[in-house]
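haha ok so turns out i had the wrong file open the whole time. this is the CORRECT one, sorry everyone. sequence first:
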Amino acid sequence: MVQYTLAQSPEIILTVSGKDSPKAREKAMDQLMELMDEGKLPTDLADGFGPQNFIEIKDPGSQPSSDEDAINQAVQTLSSLATLKLKAQESRSEALQVRKHIDVLFTDDLVTEEEINGLKEGFKVLKSYAQTNLRYREARSQAEQARTILDRALQSSEPEPRKK
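then structure:
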């Protein structure tokens, strides 16, 4: 939800669903026009008032701190790592089976069309596994930083021992 007010009438608060955007400002403008039509607007707005003239009301309590943002990002990074690890594990054995059959392409042995078609299907498995594995390795290096951020946040939340 986003809230707008007017410089001329700060007591007027227009609430619109979503985030601040041109579309949200247009919806607020529609609400403002309704107030004007109903005679509920205490201020006479000069011609030329438009959606860009609204003032967004920001609640300082609703804005996450940079620490909270870092923690949220860290958790999201670790969640992505977990998903990628599962995908890589699930497709690894199948990819290794396909990999064994690739060697037939490098021999002088005859191959059948069925074997080639089977390999073509296997290439999709290999490609998928290789891409997932690369993304997993990249995510793992990023997740190291995420783990450090969470470790710091968890350590700081422990209460200090009471001195007697």
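The first helix runs from residue 22 to 38.
again sry for the mixup
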